[in-house]
Amino acid sequence: MDKENPLVTVSTLLWHSEKFVKNCLSSLFAQTHHNFELLIADNNSSDRGPEIARKIIGENIGQRHWKFTSYGQNIGFAAGHNRHIAEAKGKYVFLLNTDVILAENFLAEAVKVLEQNDKCAAVQPRCLRLKEINGVFEKTDIIDNFGLVILKNRRIIGRGQGQPAKDKFLKEEEVFGADGAAPVYRQEALDDIKICVNQQCEYLDEDFLSYKEDVDLAWRLRLAGWRTIYAPQVIAWHVRGSGDSAKKNFIGIIKERQNINDFAKKLSFTNQRPMQLKNEQPILLLKHLPWFLPKEIAAWLYFLIFEWRNRGAIKQTFKLMPKMIKKRKIIMARKRVSAKEMEKWFE
Questions:
Q1: The dihedral sign for the CA sequence 243, 244, 250, 254
Q2: In which domain, by residue range, is 164 found?
Q3: Which of 7, 56, 239, 265 lies at a C-alpha separation of 20 to 30 Å from 299?
Q4: What are the pLDDT digits (tens) for 216-241?
């Protein structure tokens, strides 16, 4: 392995990506860090995304290793990336959403952070908002996500989301976890927290399909003693699909939720409770009950009254519980961090 120029495995999934993929892959091939392999898969796209991707790759890939897979079905965000992580040759793994554009030194700076911090499992980039105006994507100075924040009530928000970025968060620092749009992980850390149940091994939780899998992974990494570092010099721009801002008041949360499609609402509700079951430390949850209980009661009431059409989420939530208990046993057996150490991450 080249210690001065470590290999990065880039994992990308195509689904509804036709209008994004050209800009995304062009920014990848413009990187100053050239030593990367590309694993790209089509999750049964119904548009020209795969065709455009193949064209861009063919024109730019050079001597790099690459692999294009077509699944014939949408196997989900988690499963798609898991297959790539399992066959990655890189020291680091970059999960790249197609609705992201990278600064040209993105990989070089991310690798530098990881090389300088042996216990750093993930790099959270300075991810700014990419806005579509009349079919053209424009880079903005609005914060998309500068890292995952977990609140005492167990709501997850993006740090600074929706705020102007000017003069904010300019220091390299630890955060709870990395958002799923453009995280760069250490392969060693991913192998360390990999879970195998019923002869199936996974990094991201495939029972989640999509949504909250990045939070679950961040939580597991934290419990295992790994760090996530926000690096302001690692810059990207992302089209925000849901969750436009990090509102904390009840009315703001409701307004934000009304802008999310039913599919996302259903998966988000379904995955929240199994994620907590896997990763919670009971003493912390008990300590945080004054924040958690009102929020949880309000969430269930709102769901039962206003989102009853998505009631299948309730059945799916309870259906997942037995499997989550098995996964919890594995996670807790590997836990290297005390509740006291974890408490500082709950705001």
A1: negative
A2: 8-238
A3: 239
A4: 999 999 999 999 999 999 999 999 86
User: Do residues 308 and 113 lie in contact, with contact meaning Cβ atoms separated by under 8 Å?
Assistant: no
* DSSP conformation class of 98: T
Q: Give yes or no: residues 222 and 265 share one domain.
A: no
Q: Which class for 298: exposed (0-12), middle (13-18), buried (19 or more C-beta within 10 A)?
A: middle
Spatial neighbors of 311 by CB under 8 A, at least 6 apart, are none
> Model confidence over 66-120: pLDDT tens digits?
999 999 899 989 999 999 999 999 999 999 999 999 999 999 999 999 999 999 9
What separation in angstroms does the CA of 2 have from each of 5, 94, 281?
5, 18, 40
Q: Which of 20-24, 210-214, 245-249, 299-303 has the highest mean pLDDT?
A: 20-24
Q: What DSSP designation does 31 have?
A: -
User: What is the model's pTM?
Assistant: 0.91
Residues 13 and 130 in one domain: yes
Q: State how beta strands 184-186 and 120-133 pair.
A: antiparallel
Domain boundary among 238, 258, 278: 238
